[in-house]
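Chapter summary example.
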Amino acid sequence: MKQISDEKIERFKQALSLSNILITDIKLKNIFLYSELLLERNKRINLISRSTDSNVLFDHIFLSLCFSNYIPQNKNIKILDIGTGGGLPGIPLSIFFPNSHFTLIDSIRKKIDSVKNFITLLGLTNVNAISERSEVASKLKEYKNNFNVVVARSVMSLTDLIEQSLPFLNSSRGSKIITLKGGDLKDEISTAKKRYRKLIIEENILALSAIPEILNKDKKFIIVTLNQNG
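The structure predicted for these 230 residues follows.
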């Protein structure tokens, strides 16, 4: 049973256009299928907040695709999604970037089991999902220093995210951590800058004023880049 109205789908497309996120109809078809699968599974397993599932296209999928504005367009880069939950932002981004490889990690097995099911049903060949604590996975040979980009929604403090992400990143130019957070982040960013003086930490406010469907517009991207000079 279709759970997302045609009207919302059209508004979603408009929101992507306003945000300069260019996506093909074939990719959009998979995005909408994922949204339906996520909603259906969320009835049984808490993958996203029940208070936001009726607005899944905007509060979850759209915000996940906004990460694409900060991810290098190079082919074959490796991207890690820490604390993926129900596959966010990893699955929408893997649809958007079919030539990049994604690893989605979460410590809760039932969530990863759901994500693996989504990957199969969507026919995604550039994604794998693992159930493990990031502190453990970062020590494994296949993951240590193996990624160009780490992405995460607001799953932990910035300092903790950096600490958990750095062992995964390789030293190639442009390796970075990208996270989406809300609220006043001055103290959080200041603390991170003092602790990690060799990293470049930038804050970018997400322009959401033209998208009324997103109620909480106080969203910011924090981009942490390895300093190639230091």
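To summarize the output: Residues 25-42 form the longest helix (18 residues).
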